[in-house]
Every structure is written in C-alpha cells, then in structure tokens.
Design brief:
Blueprint: E1 12-14, H1 34-59, H2 73-82, E2 89-91, H3 97-102, H4 107-114, H5 138-152, E3 159-164, H6 171-182, E4 187-193, E5 196-197, E6 200-201, H7 202-205, E7 222-226, H8 230-245, E8 251-256, H9 275-282, H10 286-296, H11 302-324, H12 333-336, H13 344-352
Parallel strand pairs: 1-7, 2-3, 3-4, 4-8, 7-8
Antiparallel strand pairs: 5-6
Helix pairs in contact: 1-2, 1-10, 1-11, 2-8, 4-11, 5-6
The structure holds thiamine diphosphate and magnesium ion (MG).
Length: about 375
C-alpha cells in the first residue's frame, strides 16, 4: 500500500509596499486610497508622539509603567481600520493604542490605565471593545465568545483580537482557536509577531517556522503579512473580516513586525537584544516607509510633517492634561462597577462604609471605630 500525503498546506506572505516605500502596482489597487493612507499615516505619527510622551511621564514618576507601540503602528492601525466602528468588536492586548482611538476610546483612557486608574478600563457606552488585557492570552477567549454571541444573535459583527507571538504559547490561545473554528465564529485572530516576548526570542518560544502555521491545526485560513506595511495589513485584515461577516468563519493573521522599544518601561532590552538586530528593523520602520511613499507621490513634504508634528504635540498635551486632571475617584467607586443591582450585604457596606465580615471590622483589626 503506497504511503499517501495526508495533509499539505502553504501559507501566503503578503507585502504590497517594500521597505523603500515602493508598491506592487497590481496589489495596491485592492487596498487603501491615497486619502485613507494619508489619514492613517497621521494616526501613526500621533501614536508615536504619544509613546514618546508616555515614556517621559513614566520616567518622571507620573505613570506606573507603559508599553510602547513603537515600530508596530502599521500593524495595529491597518488592522483596526479594517474593522467597522460601532459594529465590530475589538479585543485588544496592550500594544494597539491607535486602533482603540479609531474605534472611539478617548485617548486619555489609555494613559489612565497605565497610571493605575480603573476608570481607564470603563469602556464608554456604544464603544465595542474590551479593556486592555494584561493577562497574556485571555482576550482571545473573549473575542471568540463575543463572536459566537454575534453569530447566535445574527448580528453582522465580527470580533478581532490582538495578541503577541508569545501569547500563542498559552493554552487560552489554543482553546480559543479550536472553539472558534469548530463553531465557525466570526473571529479574526491578529497576531503581532514582534519577535520577542519580553526577553524571550520567538525561536526559543516555539519550534514552528511561522506563527501562522499554528492555525492550520485548527482548519483555519491563515496568512502571514508584512506587519510594517500598512496597505498589506489592511488588505489581509479586511478580507478576513469580510469573510467572517459573510459567514465564512474565523481567520488567523500573523503580522511580522518588530518592537523597536523596550518591552515596557520596566525593561531594558539592551540587556538581551543585539543592537544590529534593532538597527536592521529601524530600517523597516513603518512610518519612514510610508512617508517615503507619500513624498514620492507628491502627497507629503517637510512643511506638512512639521505641521503634523505640532498638531500631534498639542494633541498629546491635551490627552495628558485630561488624564492628570481627572477628579480623584470616590471610595464608592469600588461598589459601583461590578453589579447592576448591588447585593444587600454590599449595599449596607456602601452606606455605612463598614463590613460585618469576621475579622474585617475595624474594631476587630484593632482599629478604633471609624478609623
Ligand atoms: C498569563 C500571563 N503570564 C505572564 C505574563 C507576564 N508577561 C507580560 S508581557 C509578556 C510577554 C508577552 O509577549 P507577547 O505575547 O509576544 O507580546 P508583546 O509584549 O511582545 O507584544 C509576559 C510573559 C502575563 N502578563 N500574563
Ligand atoms: Mg511579542
């Protein structure tokens, strides 16, 4: 009996614009218009400006910690733009700031989050997203559950979830992928492969040649894309979202990109990264590449850049002012955001600011009543 091939697969790698800003004339027809590219380029520069200021805020003790998006702007923005605001759901990780703003999250909420203020996690009514997700991988399950709900309710909405290369080593990733594919939920799994999970390089994290191939095991369409190419990211994400919306089930996208900054402000990547590697990726910076493209097309110049830099600075100043100027939270807040109807026991606690729980009354803890 001859041995047959049980399974064979190939994975496409999509790039429309190369590192020099030169585009594939055929592929570019099926992606963003010049007006859209201009708009998104500005989002990218604003996002970078926020990063720079947030870094300084942390260094001067005005923020707890902060993970820069630097280098990954095209991935987050291209994918975010492919989703429909108010219709599709975003289940982010923590490196997609601009995608969140685009979908209606006030920018200062992100700063509040990193300043340790819970109000940064209170997603405004009508904005379809889950809060920033620090436990690695849990948001992929949320996206699958939300997408399943959308399917059951027959709403034409898709859930897109963002996560890193490291997150694909988590059990949650595999559970979400298996469930999404088995139940054909309208979920788009968007992996930002930035080559590092804090200090662990991708090669030490997994033995797969690509992250994208993990989706094959779940029978899911999967694509690798140049994550620093705004146009390509938009195109593959739009296609995946529209397939999901049309009932074609989930997809996986591996956006190959690079984290140009430290993991967070609590990290010093110089301790584990080869400067040559960082330098090579600086040459692939998504902002520089797009600017080259726009300049050659006569759509951008130094004057416009100077104006944008000024506008970005003013915007960031305003965002910081909004975050730092927010009134202090009240003690009641700890009761107000978990239950629609406060259980009677908690209601008593809220009204009296006392607890009856054994060992927790102030007197029992050795404190004077009301202390
Ligand atoms: C469940 C869980 N385990 C460990 C951590 C600590 N941790 C924070 S970020 C991180 C690396 C994540 O890497 P990756 O998924 O590639 O995302 P990136 O930060 O590179 O964008 C780890 C291990 C965590 N936050 N949650
Ligand atoms: Mg990573």
């Amino acid at each position: 009996m001859p041995i047959r091939t049980a399974y064979q697969a190939k994975i496409d790698y999509v790039q429309i614009m190369d590192e020099h800003g030169v585009v594939d004339e055929k592929l570019v027809k099926d992606t963003l218009s010049d007006e859209q590219v201009l708009e998104l380029y500005q989002y990218m520069c604003r996002c970078r400006a926020l990063d720079e200021t947030a870094f300084k805020l942390q260094r001067s003790g005005r923020m707890g910690t902060y993970p820069q998006n630097k280098g990954q702007e095209a991935a987050a923005i291209g994918a975010g733009f492919a989703a429909k605001r108010g219709v599709d759901w975003l289940c982010p990780c923590y490196r997609e700031n601009a995608a969140l703003w685009m979908h209606g999250l006030p920018m200062h909420y992100v700063l509040l989050h990193w300043m340790g203020d819970e109000r940064g996690n209170q997603i405004p009514e009508g904005v379809r997203m889950t809060p920033l997700c620090i436990p690695i991988g849990t948001q992929m399950l949320h996206a699958t559950g939300i997408a399943w709900a959308m399917k059951l309710k027959k709403e034409p909405s898709v859930a897109i979830t963002f996560f890193g290369d490291g997150a694909t080593s988590e059990g949650d990733f595999h559970e979400a992928m298996n469930f999404a594919s088995t139940f054909q939920t309208p979920t788009v799994f968007f992996c930002q492969n930035n080559h590092w999970a804090i200090s662990v390089p991708r090669e030490s994290q997994m033995n797969s040649e690509t992250v994208a191939q993990k989706a094959l095991a779940y029978g899911m369409p999967t694509t690798q894309v140049d994550g620093n190419d705004l146009m390509a990211v938009y195109k593959v994400t739009r296609d995946a979202i529209e397939r999901a919306r049309a009932g074609g089930g989930p997809s996986f996208i591996e956006a190959v990109t690079y984290r140009l900054a430290d993991h967070t402000t609590a990290d010093d990547a110089r301790r584990y990264r080869d400067p040559k590697e960082v330098e090579a990726w600086q040459g692939k910076d998504p902002i520089i590449r797009l600017r080259k493209y726009l300049t050659v097309k006569g759509l951008w110049d130094d004057q416009k850049q100077a104006e944008l830099d000024e506008a970005a600075k003013a915007m960031v100043t305003e965002v910081v002012r909004a975050a730092e100027g927010i009134a202090k939270p009240t003690v009641h807040d700890i009761f107000d955001y978990t239950y629609a109807q406060l259980p009677s026991e908690l209601d008593v606690q809220k009204r009296t600011m006392r607890t009856n729980s054994l060992g927790q009354a102030p007197e029992q803890a050795g404190l004077a009543s009301g202390a």
